[in-house]
């Protein structure tokens, strides 16, 4: 599938639930998050059908996300069903890691190859402050379990926020000396209303890079496969790598290769634009595969050239946990 700017779209991010067992302050408020009703969430049969049709039309990489994907019952069997698709898309998952010590081995058995784990502080008190839950140890146990299960590579997602946790960038980067992980730093996106942090707390990618250079010289790494948005480096002498995701500044929209499906069945051509296309009602109208594929193609055609953060963007209704990041 090609969009109007000749970009090849071969990466589908599926949010399988908007529910979450954490309440990260940069993602959602503690209270007042109306969860999508049960009937509005796409069933696994519906999600499988969309994935199958997308893969038949050229999607080569599928990521499950949320909310927290591991809180939805049946996720392991769903992954096994995607692994069995004849086209063998690359399959991966983004998780907060809280339930990973129980799930790492079953996920591996189901055929999941690799995993991304979000973690914003290595300090218990601070982790609790950011996520509003006292769960750092569960995440660390989950990471150990993921390593033991052979999920590889493990990628860590850390969002540095000014005045909150940016002083931990070096400590996170040093994890790459000990572990063969890709430790990525994501620019904070002030994208929805009601968050506890403001755009003044954005910690820009250039600053992140300078902090990393204080730890050791950065050697750029060649990237392979169907790319995510991270720029990858190796700290001299490290076994793992570090990455920077310029989510806001010097954006990577020119290389954008993705489409998103929200838990309630809306196709979202761009993370940072509130334009959505209702796939759920098409799926539930008895449409054949061709019609469903046409909706996918339409949302590819409607992808914007780039995001408009910093211009006329107004934080939208849908929060990150409803989109999946
Ligand atoms: N602005 C913007 N940010 C993105 C986009 N894709 C991912 N991000 C940000 O980068 C974070 C990390 O993405 P992940 O879910 O770990 O996946 P990934 O980096 O695409 O995938 P891999 O590197 O292949 O593992 C997301 O949660 C977002 O915050 C995008 O298309 N636009
Ligand atoms: C929405 S979460 C969903 C998956 C899972 N719950 C997790 O936290 O990994 C996906 C990613 O989005 C990132 N994210 C959420 N809100 C963000 C924001 N305002 N700016 C930058 N990244 C954000 C998180 O750090 C996480 O890595
Ligand atoms: S970032 Fe992930 S773990 Fe944190 S509240 Fe959002 S969905 Fe939940
Ligand atoms: S901001 Fe939108 S257009 Fe840019 S890379 Fe992300 S999803 Fe693609």
From TrEMBL:
One GO-annotated biological process of the protein: Mo-molybdopterin cofactor biosynthetic process
Chain residues that bind [4Fe-4S] cluster 2: 253, 256, 270
EC number: 4.1.99.22
Domain Radical SAM core: 4-230
Alphabetical list of InterPro entries matching this protein: Aldolase_TIM (IPR013785), Elp3/MiaA/NifB-like_rSAM (IPR006638), MoaA (IPR013483), MoaA-like (IPR040064), MoaA_NifB_PqqE_Fe-S-bd_CS (IPR000385), MoaA_twitch (IPR010505), MoCo_biosynth_MoaA/MoaC (IPR050105), rSAM (IPR007197)
SUPFAM superfamilies: Radical SAM enzymes
Keywords (A to Z) from UniProt: 4Fe-4S, GTP-binding, Iron, Iron-sulfur, Lyase, Metal-binding, Molybdenum cofactor biosynthesis, Nucleotide-binding, S-adenosyl-L-methionine
Keyword Cell inner membrane: no
Pathways per UniProt: Cofactor biosynthesis; molybdopterin biosynthesis
Sequence positions that bind [4Fe-4S] cluster 1: 20, 24, 27
Residues given in the record as GTP binding sites: 13, 63, 94, 155, 258-260
UniProt-annotated binding residues for S-adenosyl-L-methionine: 26, 67, 118, 189
Single Gene Ontology MF annotation: metal ion binding
Cofactor(s), by name: [4Fe-4S] cluster
Domain of life assignment: Bacteria
Catalytic activity: GTP + AH2 + S-adenosyl-L-methionine = (8S)-3',8-cyclo-7,8-dihydroguanosine 5'-triphosphate + 5'-deoxyadenosine + L-methionine + A + H(+)
Cofactor descriptive note: Binds 2 [4Fe-4S] clusters. Binds 1 [4Fe-4S] cluster coordinated with 3 cysteines and an exchangeable S-adenosyl-L-methionine and 1 [4Fe-4S] cluster coordinated with 3 cysteines and the GTP-derived substrate.
Family: Belongs to the radical SAM superfamily. MoaA family.
Role noted for this protein: Catalyzes the cyclization of GTP to (8S)-3',8-cyclo-7,8-dihydroguanosine 5'-triphosphate.
Summary of subunit composition and partner proteins: Monomer and homodimer.
Protein name in the entry: GTP 3',8-cyclase
Organism, scientific name: Malonomonas rubra DSM 5091
């Amino acid at each position: 599938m090609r969009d109007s700017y000749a970009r090849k779209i071969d990466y589908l991010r599926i949010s399988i639930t908007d529910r979450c067992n954490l309440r990260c302050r940069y993602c959602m408020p503690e209270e007042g998050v109306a969860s999508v009703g049960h009937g509005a969430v796409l069933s696994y049969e519906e999600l499988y059908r969309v994935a199958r049709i997308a893969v038949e039309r050229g999607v080569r990489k599928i990521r499950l996300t949320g909310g927290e994907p591991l809180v939805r019952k049946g996720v392991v069997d769903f992954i096994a069903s995607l692994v069995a698709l004849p086209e063998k898309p690359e399959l991966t998952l983004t998780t907060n890691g809280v339930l990973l010590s129980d799930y790492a081995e079953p996920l591996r058995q189901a055929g999941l190859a690799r995993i991304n784990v979000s973690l914003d502080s290595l300090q218990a008190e601070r982790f609790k402050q950011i996520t509003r839950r006292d769960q750092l140890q569960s995440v660390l146990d989950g990471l150990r379990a993921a390593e033991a299960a052979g999920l590889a590579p493990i990628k860590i997602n850390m969002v540095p926020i000014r005045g909150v946790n940016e002083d931990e960038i070096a400590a996170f980067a040093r994890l790459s000396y000990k572990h063969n992980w890709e430790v990525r730093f994501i620019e904070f996106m002030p994208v929805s209303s009601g968050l506890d942090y403001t755009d003044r707390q954005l910690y820009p990618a250039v600053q992140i890079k300078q902090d990393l250079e204080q730890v050791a010289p950065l050697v750029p790494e060649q990237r392979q496969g169907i790319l995510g948005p991270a720029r990858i480096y190796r700290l001299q002498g490290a076994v793992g790598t570090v990455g920077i995701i310029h989510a806001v500044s010097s954006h990577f929209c020119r290389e954008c290769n993705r489409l998103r499906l929200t838990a309630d069945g809306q196709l979202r051509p761009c993370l940072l634009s509130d334009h959505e296309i209702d796939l759920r009602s098409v799926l539930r109208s008895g449409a054949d595969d061709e019609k469903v594929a046409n909706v996918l193609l339409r949302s590819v055609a409607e992808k914007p050239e780039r995001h408009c953060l910093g211009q006329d963007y107004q934080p939208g209704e849908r929060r990150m946990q409803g989109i999946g990041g």
